[in-house]
Amino acid sequence: MPRQMNLGAFLMATGHHVAAWRHPDVPADPLDFATYKRTAQIAEAACFDALFVADSVAAPSDPLASHSARSVYFEPLTLLSALSAVTERIGLIATATTSYNEPYHVARKFASLDHLSAGRAGWNLVTSDAAAEAGNFGRQTHIPHAERYARAREFQQVVQGLWDSWADDAFVRDKASGLFHHPQAVRTLDHVGEHFRVKGPLNVARSPQGRPVLVQAGSSETGRELAAQSAEVVFTAQPSLARAQAFYADLKGRLARHGRDEQSLKIMPGVFVVVGQSQAQAEDKYEQFQALVDPRVGVGLLGRMLGNFDLSGYPLDSPLPALPPTEDGQRSRQQLLTELAGNEQLTLAQLGRRIAGGRGHYSLVGTPTQIADELQAWFEGGGADGFNVLVPHLPLGLEDFAVQVVPELQRRGLFRRQYQGHTLREHLGLQRPANPYFAERGQP
Amino acid sequence: MPRQMNLGAFLMATGHHVAAWRHPDVPADPLDFATYKRTAQIAEAACFDALFVADSVAAPSDPLASHSARSVYFEPLTLLSALSAVTERIGLIATATTSYNEPYHVARKFASLDHLSAGRAGWNLVTSDAAAEAGNFGRQTHIPHAERYARAREFQQVVQGLWDSWADDAFVRDKASGLFHHPQAVRTLDHVGEHFRVKGPLNVARSPQGRPVLVQAGSSETGRELAAQSAEVVFTAQPSLARAQAFYADLKGRLARHGRDEQSLKIMPGVFVVVGQSQAQAEDKYEQFQALVDPRVGVGLLGRMLGNFDLSGYPLDSPLPALPPTEDGQRSRQQLLTELAGNEQLTLAQLGRRIAGGRGHYSLVGTPTQIADELQAWFEGGGADGFNVLVPHLPLGLEDFAVQVVPELQRRGLFRRQYQGHTLREHLGLQRPANPYFAERGQP
Fold first, then answer.
1. Does residue A440 surpass a pLDDT of 80?
2. Which residue from A40, A187, B299, B322 has the fewest beta carbons nearer than 10 Å?
3. Nearest to B178 among A67, A199, A201 (CB)
4. Are the Cβ atoms of A196 and B138 closer than 8 angstroms?
C-alpha cells in the first residue's frame, strides 16, 4: 500500500469561521452535545484519524467577545470522554496546558480516556495561550516563555513516567489464588525536579496504547526542540507549500539527534477548507460567511491571534501597528500574520476579515479535485504527513469535506477506505511504546 | 403523592465487597467501560436518582494492595462524562478533592458535565482520603484536618462563584444583529482569599441546573458545619437506626442557622445490601463472598478504612490495637469501627472480614420484603431521606436490588415508577438556585 495521509477533524463549537454561528444553517449553541456527536460521527464515517479539540483555561475578555461564539465551550476531557461512548474507532485528541495543571491529574485523565476509548486518546501538550489564564490560577502575571517551556518539558517527563507506572502484564486477576496484580509490576516514580515533586504510582493501569499519543503545536525554536524530543504528532500553521516544506525538513531533521526515526513524528499542518461543486460555488459559499463578519469582530479575533492585544483603539482602515513580540505562546502566529499584512498591504479590517475563517492556516476554497490536488502536492512534496482540517461551519462544513473531498483522496489511493487498526497509534502508523521499566517482563 | 425516597447507586469497579472480583460471576477488570455502562443502564432502568463515584488521587500502597481490585480505576469525571452519553435521566455524582485541585478546573469540569448531561451533574466535595495523595502533588506531608476544611470552604465558595459567572439568559445568539451574548451578563469573580486568587469568569455558561448538586460526606463536627452551610446531599455511614436518627436530627437542626430549610438538604446513609429470595439464600450469597476473603486482605482494607494504618505487623487473632486519631479524613469511620471492635470483642481478622462488604456501612442481608422494611423504617423514622446503595458485586448485585427490592419499594409508594423530572435536582426535589448576581435579569 502506498503511504497514507492522516486527517484530523479540528472541532470548534459552531465552526472555525468567526461568523459561522450567524449563518442560518449553523446550530449556534456551543454547548449542545448533540451537534458534537453528529460531527464526530460524520468524521468517523469518513475514517478520519482523530478529532482534535483546542483549549484555553479562561474566557476571552476583549471588548468584542460578546459578538463571537467563543466565550463558552465544553472542557475537552469531559467532551471527548462523552464522545468516546458514541464512537468506535476515531482518535480523540484533547489539549491540556502544562502551565496551570498538575502532571498527576493530566496523566490520569488521559490514561483514563485511553482506557474508556480502548486506545484512542491523544494529548495536545501546550504551554499556554492567553494571559487571562494566569489570573484564574493565583498568578498576577503570565509565566514567561522560557520558564513555561522548561516547566512543560519536566511536566511531560513526569506524565510519561506516570503512564509507565505499571507493567503491561501487571494484572493477572487470578481468582483462584487471590492475586490481582504482581507486586513487582508497579513502581513509584519518586520524581524530584525543578518544578514538580511527584511520587506515583498512577492509579490507572498502563493504557491500551502504552501511552496516549503525544501531540504538540509549538513552532518556535524552543517548541520545535521540545517536539523533536518527544512529540509524535505536530500541528502547525504554514502559509505556503514552500514554508511547509522548510518546517517539515527542519523538524524531521532534528529527530536523529534525539535517537528517533522520521516515522516516529507525523507533521500535520492545519488547512481551512471550503468545498463547492465548482470554483464559483465554493467561493460563493465562502463569501456567505465573509459577508457576516462584523469588521470590529474580525479585528478582535486578530488581536487575540496576535497574542491578546486590544486593537479596538485603532481605526479599521489603518495598517497593522507595530507590536512588541507577544509573551503569550502565539509568537509564531504573530510573525506569520505580521508578514501577511506587510506583503499584501492589508488594513486592520482586511486582515481581520482574511483570518476570519482559517485564522492564518492555509486556505483552500474550491472543488474536491482542486482541494485534493493541493493536499496531494503538500503530502507528496515533503510538506505534510497529513492535515488537521478546519471547516467554516459545523457540522455541515465537515460533511462537505467528508462526502466530497475524502472520496477523491480515496480514489487516488491517498487515504484509507476503512479503518485498518483500532487505536489512534495504529491509525497514525505510530509504534506502541514499550515500558522501559518492565522490559524484561515483555509486552502482552 | 407521599414523600419519596432517593436512591443512589454507589459504583465501584467490581463491587463493594473486597473479594468480589474473585467471584466467578464478576467481571474482574476494573477498567472495562462496558461493565460500567451495563451497571448504569440497570440503575437507570430502576429509576435511581444518581450514580455515585468515589475517588482518590493516589494508588493504595499497603502490602496487600496486590490482592485487591482497588489499585486502578477510571478517573471519575471522564467516566461519568462517557456514561452521560449512554444514559438519559440518571444523575451523575463524581467525587473531587479540594485539597489537591484548583477551583477553576473543578468548577469547569462539573459545569461541562452538567451541560453534556442536560442537568445531571453532582459534585461530591471531599477534603482528602489518603496521605499518599500529598506525595503526588509536591507535598511531603498531608495537609492537617483544620487547614483542609478551611481550604475546602474557600474552594467551594470560589467554585460556586464561578458557576454564577454568567446570567442564565446571557446568550441571545441573535444571528441578525451579530450579538452573541449580552456584554453585561457576565462578571469576573475577582476572588482574593486565604488560599486562592481567582479572577474568572468561567468559560462555561451557567449550567442547566444553575449549579451542579453539591454533595458532601464529612461527618466530623467541621464536616457537619460545612455541610449545613452548603451541601445539598450528605452521604454518611451510620451503624444503626438510632445513630442515623441522631445524625439526621443534628444535621437538619443546623440548617436554620444558615438560613436554610430542611428540604434543601437530603441525607442519604450508605447501605450495603445482599438480596435473596429467602433469608437463607441471601445469607448463602453473602457467605460466598465472605469465604473468598483472604484474612490478610481484610485486615489490609481495615487499615485503610481506619485512616491508612499498616496493620500487617499484628497477629490476625489479636484485638484492634489502640491507634492515634487519624489525620486522613477518615476520623468518623475510625471511631465507628473502633466502637464496633470493642462492642463485639472482634479480632483483627474478624473485624476485617466484617467490613469486607459494607466497610462499616449498615448491612442488610435478606429478602426484598425484609430489606424494604428496614429502608422504610429508616426513611419514615427520621433516619434518612434516601440511601446510597452499595452492593457486593457489580453489575449483578445491583440488578438483584433493581429487580427485587425496587419494585417492593414502588408497591409501597415509597419510590418512583418512572422519572418525573429531567435533572438531578428535579429527581432529588432540590430547587434550582437563582443567580444572585443577575437576579434582576430574571431566570429563563
1. no
2. B322
3. A67
4. yes
Q: What is the mean pLDDT of chain A?
A: 94
d(CA A354, CA A363): 10
CA–CA separation, B386 and B268 (whole Å): 5
One-letter amino acid at B236 equals: T
Mind listing the pLDDT tens digit for each residue in B102-160?
A: 999 999 999 999 999 999 999 999 987 577 899 999 987 778 888 889 999 999 999 99
**How does strand A197-198 pair with strand A191-192?**
antiparallel
Contact residues, chain A, for B197 at CB < 8 Å: 135, 138-139
Question: What does the alpha-carbon distance between residue B30 and residue A87 come to, in Å, rounded to a whole number?
Answer: 21
CA distance A156 to B189: 31
DSSP letters of A301-365? Answer: HHHHHTTS---TTS-TTSBPPP-PPPSSS-HHHHHHHHHHHHHHT-BHHHHHHHTTTTTTSEEEE
The pLDDT tens digits for B349-408 are 999 999 888 888 999 999 999 999 999 999 999 999 999 999 999 999 999 999 999 999
Q: Please judge whether A82 and B58 are an interchain contact, meaning their C-beta atoms are less than 8 angstroms apart.
A: no
Q: Which residue has the cell 500502597?
A: B61
- Contact by Cβ (8 Å): B75, B104: no
- Please tell me the pTM assigned to this model: 0.96
Looking at the predicted structure, is the pLDDT value of residue A140 above 80? no
Contacts of B63 in chain A (CB under 8 A): 183
Note whether B197 and B191 are within 8 A (CB).
Answer: yes
Tell me the three cell numbers of residue A211: 501511552
Cis peptide before B395 (omega within 30 of 0): yes
Give the CATH number of domain A6-132+209-279+359-441; options: 3.40.50.720, 3.20.20.30, 3.30.70.20, 2.40.128.20.
3.20.20.30
Per DSSP, helices labelled H in B177-257 are: 221-230, 241-255
CB distance B178–A19 less than 8 Å?
Answer: yes
Coil, strand or helix at B19: coil
User: How many Cα atoms are found within 13 Å in the side-chain-facing hemisphere of B242?
Assistant: 0
Average pLDDT (A94-123) is 97
> Does the distance separating the beta carbons of B100 and A102 come in below 8 Å?
yes
> Do β-strands B386-390 and B266-275 pair in parallel, antiparallel, or remain unpaired?
parallel
Q: Are A107 and A159 in contact (CB under 8 A)?
A: yes
Cell of A385: 504527513
Please state whether the peptide bond connecting residue A201 to the residue before it is cis, i.e. omega within 30 degrees of 0: yes
Given a cut of 60, is residue B172 above it in pLDDT?
yes
Cα(A312)–Cα(A319) distance, integer angstroms: 13
The torsion angles phi and psi of A363, rounded to 5 degrees, stand at -110, 135
Query: Where in chain A are the domains?
Result: 6-132+209-279+359-441, 294-355
CATH number of B6-134+209-278+360-436: 3.20.20.30
